[in-house]
Specification:
The complex is a heterodimer of chains A (893) and B (91).
Chain A lengths: L12 E10 L2 E7 L3 H7 L6 E2 L6 E2 L12 E4 L2 E5 L10 E3 L14 H4 L9 H5 L7 H11 L17 E12 L3 H12 L4 E4 L12 E4 L3 E2 L6 E6 L2 E12 L3 E3 L12 E3 H11 L6 E6 L2 H12 L3 E7 L6 H8 L4 E3 L1 E7 L6 E6 L9 E4 L2 E5 L2 E3 L2 H5 L3 E5 L4 E6 L4 E3 L26 E3 L4 E2 H9 L5 H8 L12 H12 L3 H4 L13 H5 L12 H6 L4 E4 L2 E4 L5 H10 L1 E5 L4 E6 L3 H8 L12 E7 L5 E11 L2 E6 L4 H15 L4 E4 L4 E7 L3 H6 L16 E6 L2 E6 L8 E7 L3 H12 L4 E3 L2 H10 L35 H8 L5 E8 L10 E3 L5 E11 L4 E9 L8 E6 L2 E8 L9 H4 L1
Parallel strand pairs in A: 1-7, 8-9, 8-13, 9-10, 13-26, 15-22, 16-17, 16-22, 17-18, 31-41
Antiparallel strand pairs in A: 1-2, 3-4, 5-6, 5-7, 11-12, 12-13, 14-23, 19-20, 20-21, 24-25, 27-28, 29-30, 31-37, 32-35, 32-36, 33-34, 34-35, 37-40, 38-39, 39-40, 42-45, 42-47, 43-44, 43-46, 44-45, 46-47
Helix pairs in contact in A: 6-7, 10-12, 16-21
Chain B lengths: L3 E4 L3 E4 L4 E5 L10 H9 L7 E7 L7 E7 L4 E6 L11
Antiparallel strand pairs in B: 1-2, 3-4, 4-5, 5-6
Classes of the chains: A alpha+beta (893), B mainly beta (91).
């Protein structure tokens, strides 16, 4: 590691050496180094290969602004080496170069292919023959781009935390102006958040929450997302202070992308913060005092200054100070060319606007320091609604109007009183490639070509050449591109205007934005038992549920032959209570509940006012004023919302209590279910005393339960609801009592087989947002003769008289083939006319059964339908009655 | 979309806490024609300006309430429970 002596303000700790690898080779760094500073200290000058021409690119800004040092860290592409701190053991790799950074075969596109690769070449060259596009695309994708995402991502170990933060004042930018604004606001008693993305430590300020190494990504309707490591802060403030500073601009000249051409700020940062000398002999080209100050700083650090070109005509005091050090300062000069093959070997300076070999001055050097003035970093404040104007004195766009509640301070506000010369749009044209845009390899010539081809507005040229669309997001190229556009079209800069500022302002991993921040898994109180029993646990909506215990067919058969037990705690459970409860339910359901006798159960389908099926479930009347409503598992929340919405509108004397989380439920079903239950309760379980669709309250194994005798799975069954705290106790008691009766736990999958045998619909599986009770073969559920109004009545009156286009029916298949759910039903002409919603092999029936929406004329027993399953067609027989126990004799026994 | 809403029970919260119930429209009192029914089910006034609408505090107290919001600026003029006195929709 070659380092300068201790620099005041250096960020490195020379006592702590860290090790990492770059392209497999070991690199040493000091604590506090960035990847780039360590690599540069180790002698590396080429950090990337350019997007299109695969030219060598080296450090330019050292501030995370430009695209030149983007690398992959631990397999993740898109990290800027100049701002990413070195961590012990990290793996760093280059992007977009084959076989390596120092020998890249795709460089041929630069050396011989330039005339074949003007802007938009891929639109022109690779369009014919059309069928070859996939091949072209593959080649192009390989040739260009910014790294490759691994196809197989390792299990993600980190996750983004979302944090909401409300504040009085948000200050973006922690430079001196931002810190002063934060301090002032906090002194007035405001709750202040200060966000800064730089590497410098900010001293604590009383009353200010400082988010360091954190990037504001954009401004969205008053919310500023701030990315800080594993946290995405979503900050909402009453007032915003933008202290985003200004961005040093490069100059457009021949070879301006050679490694060794650095912005003055970048060269100074490398020397001062990391004590790395950016070169040994430098040529400086500047349009303001910034470059002169950098020359002095680098000179102090031991860099020989070959010459300084100052574009301004009059020497400033800083220029005179340099002359006194013996440094040659050429006023009214600029840089025409940087020369060299792998990096800067020399530079050619010349008087501004004068051509010819006689006036050019070549210098030998290994570093070219440029400063093309500063452009205010306005993107975020523009997103917040500010407007710009062109400032001819500063040669750049500045803020004109800011919206209420927004303040701008520091360099973004344009307080810099430095005298600036406005650089020519391009210098040294004809000597080599002059890059306007480093990210996308767009040259000054390319922008001229785009204008020739008619893309003569900055927004059109942007889309055609992709200038400003790369990783720097216009930081380095917007102003140069506007200047070139003005030159090519003969317009003024204010006529050319700027491109629209859009988020995100900094490159941000997709995972930070899209990662699910909070994935609560609901588990029933019996969940541990399912795991112990070897349950195949999967997601079912928000729930983790046992799909089976290893043998779904066997589990289904056990329910038919002996007994089965399933955890149905996921069902929605609502207590509807009050003097108006019956009337309330009469209004919400197409059938009646006010006439339901206490202790009895009725099935209900909720319909919308458009007559469409919303949800279904059973309702048990517990006493005159109390109904126990169950809903589907996935519909629990929505039904509660639906009920409470209508209640808010109607203001009836009804109280709703959502018991979904508080109660567990299991379904005990099968020919032996009655006997098992009877062993655990004093309740008379005889068929005469506890009939089908009775609901009774009793103790089971000492626990107060509500027992609903219903038949979702088609055998004698008891749905047992009880306080969730007793989940395992009741489950264990039932399993123990059932052992001698052959009880088996069964999961969601066998339950789906069992209910399909009975053609019991699953709302959302067998129905969609268009399904009506009539189409779903449940006309009996709609009581149009009800006296009172109910939700959906008018639409259902209409549908009652109209033949639906399709109806939900059952079908059977003879050949053992189970069609994919979603397969298409073809009509007689081979036109899609319906779809399969459910299909399973039924072990008890020994054939494939299913349900499908078919054209109404075909919805008759014995009709043949054709199912098309991704090209495979098969014939099936329609059946309208349940496949198993069609008359319900088993159920009622 | 992002703004703040004041739940009449819980206070000021981010809009993402809430469910939107749409503009308040009157359900027909007696049997509508098919066209009226279609308009009630599917048509919205969709005003550019202040509208009365339903909101549900989904991640909070799970209460429905009424808000007046300017759809152009997302400025919420007021919120109240539907049973609050002075709410015209309580009539």
């Amino acid at each position: 590691m070659s380092r300068l002596p201790n620099q005041p303000g250096e960020l490195i700790n020379r006592d702590n050496v860290l090790r990492f690898t770059f392209d497999g080779k070991p690199v040493e760094a000091y604590e506090g180094d960035t990847i780039a500073s360590a690599l540069f200290a180790a002698g590396r000058r080429t950090f990337s290969r350019s997007f299109k021409y695969h030219r060598r690119r080296g450090l330019l800004c050292c501030a995370g602004q430009c695209p030149n040092c983007i690398v992959a860290v631990d397999g993740a592409p898109g990290t800027r080496a100049c701002t990413e701190p070195v961590r012990e053991g990290m793996t760093v790799e280059h992007l977009n170069a084959q076989p390596g950074l120092d020998l890249d075969v795709m460089r041929a596109t630069d050396l011989v292919g330039t005339k074949f690769t003007p802007p938009g070449f891929y639109y022109k060259t690779f369009i014919r023959p059309r069928k070859l596009w996939p091949l072209y695309e593959k080649v192009l994708r390989h040739a260009a781009g910014l790294g490759v995402l691994r196809k197989e991502q390792p299990e993600r170990e980190w996750r983004t935390e979302y944090r909401r933060r409300h504040a009085d004042v948000l200050v973006i930018g922690g430079g001196s102006a931002g810190q002063a604004a934060a301090k002032e606001a906090a002194a007035q008693g405001d709750d202040v958040v200060l966000v800064d993305e730089g590497p410098l430590r900010i001293e604590p300020i009383a009353g200010v929450e400082i988010l360091a190494r954190a990037s504001a990504l954009g401004y969205f309707d008053g919310i500023v997302p701030v990315w800080q490591g594993d946290t995405l802060h979503q900050i909402r403030a009453r007032r915003h202070v933008f202290a985003t500073g200004a961005i040093e601009q490069p100059l457009v000249f021949a070879g301006n992308d050679l490694p060794g051409v650095m912005l003055s700020g970048g060269a100074v940062r490398l020397a001062q913060l990391y004590s790395v000398s950016p070169g040994t002999r430098a040529v400086v080209a500047t349009t303001s005092d910034r470059g002169l100050e950098a020359a002095a700083t680098l000179h102090d650090a031991g860099v020989e200054i070959a010459a300084v070109a100052d574009l301004r005509e009059t020497p400033s005091p800083a220029a005179r100070a340099l002359s006194e050090r013996g440094i040659e300062v050429l006023t009214d000069h600029t840089i025409l060319e940087a020369t060299g093959s792998k990096g800067v070997e020399g530079a050619v300076l010349g008087p501004n606007g004068v051509q010819g070999a006689s006036v050019e001055k070549p210098f030998k050097c290994d570093l070219v320091v440029v400063s093309g003035g500063f452009a205010p970093a306005m993107s975020l404040v523009l997103q917040a609604g500010a407007q710009t104007r062109y400032d001819p004195a500063r040669g750049c766009f500045v803020l004109d109007k800011v919206p209420p509640g927004v303040t701008v301070v520091g360099e973004v506000a344009g307080v810099d009183d430095d005298v600036v010369a406005i650089p020519p749009p391009v210098a040294g044209a004809g000597r080599g490639k002059c890059f306007a845009c480093l990210c996308e390899d767009v040259t000054a010539k390319d922008i001229g070509l785009s204008v020739e081809e008619g893309y003569d507005s900055i927004e059109l040229s942007k889309r055609y050449t992709t200038v400003t669309m790369g990783p720097c997001q216009g930081r380095m190229c917007q102003l140069p591109a506007i200047r070139l556009m003005a030159k090519e079209t003969g317009q003024l800069l204010e006529q050319v205007g700027t491109t629209t500022a859009r988020p995100p302002w900094v490159s941000v991993p997709m995972g930070v934005l899209a990662g699910r921040p909070f994935e609560p898994a609901k588990r029933s109180s019996i969940h541990a038992r399912h795991r112990e029993l070897g349950g195949n646990i999967k997601w079912a909506g928000d729930w983790r549920r046992a799909y089976d215990y290893g043998d779904p067919q066997g589990e289904a058969l056990a329910v038919h032959q002996a007994a089965g037990l399933i955890d149905v705690s996921t069902l929605g459970k609502l207590l509807v209570r009050g003097p108006d409860a019956g009337e309330f339910l009469d209004l919400l359901y197409p059938n009646r509940f006010s006439d339901l006798k206490p202790g009895r159960i009725r099935y209900g389908v909720i319909s919308s006012d458009a007559g469409r099926i919303v949800d279904d479930g059973t309702i048990c009347r517990i006493d005159d004023d109390t109904f126990y409503v169950t809903t589907t598992s996935s519909g629990a929340g929505a039904v509660e919302e639906w009920f409470s919405w209508w209640l808010a509108d109607w203001r009836m004397d009804v109280k709703l209590t959502d018991l979904t989380q508080g109660l567990s439920a299991v379904n005990l079903a099968g020919p032996n279910a009655r006997e098992i239950l009877a062993n655990l309760t004093d309740l008379d379980c005889s068929p005469e005393a506890f009939k089908y669709l009775d609901g009774k309250q009793a103790r089971i194994a000492g626990v107060e339960c509500l027992i609903l005798r219903i038949g979702f799975v088609g055998e004698v069954g008891y749905e047992i609801h009880f306080a969730a705290a007793y989940g395992e106790h009741v489950w264990d008691a039932l399993m123990e009592a059932g052992r001698e009766h052959g009880i088996k736990p069964f999961g969601l999958e066998p339950q789906r087989i069992l209910r399909l045998q009975k053609m019991h619909i699953l709302v959302g599986q067998d129905t969609d947002s268009e399904s009506t009770p009539f189409g779903a073969a449940m006309p009996w559920i709609v009581k149009l003769d009800k006296q009172q109004d109910f939700i959906g009545k008018w639409a259902l009156e209409h549908y009652a008289t109209e033949e639906p286009a399709t109806r939900l029916v059952g079908f059977t298949l003879g050949n053992g083939y189970v069609p994919t759910e979603g397969s298409v039903i073809l009509d007689g002409l081979g036109v899609p006319a319906g779809q399969v919603t459910s299909a399973r092999f039924s072990p008890v029936l020994d054939r494939v059964i299913g349900m499908a929406w078919v054209p109404s004329p075909l919805a008759r027993d014995g009709s043949q339908i054709t199912i098309s399953d991704e090209g495979r067609t098969t014939e099936a027989q329609i059946q309208t009655k349940p496949f198993y126990d069609p008359e319900g004799e088993v159920l009622r026994s | 979309m992002s703004f703040l809403l004041t739940c009449p029970n819980c206070g000021v919260r981010e809009v993402t806490d809430f469910g939107y119930g749409g503009e308040i429209s009157a359900r027909p009192r007696s049997r509508p024609t098919l066209r009226q029914l279609g308009e009630y089910n599917y048509f919205r006034r969709n005003v550019a300006g202040v509208q009365r609408e339903w909101w549900f505090h989904r991640s909070g107290c799970r209460a429905w309430f009424v808000a007046e919001r300017d759809t152009r600026t997302n400025e919420v003029l007021f919120t109240q429970l539907p049973a609050d006195p002075g709410d015209p929709s309580a009539a």
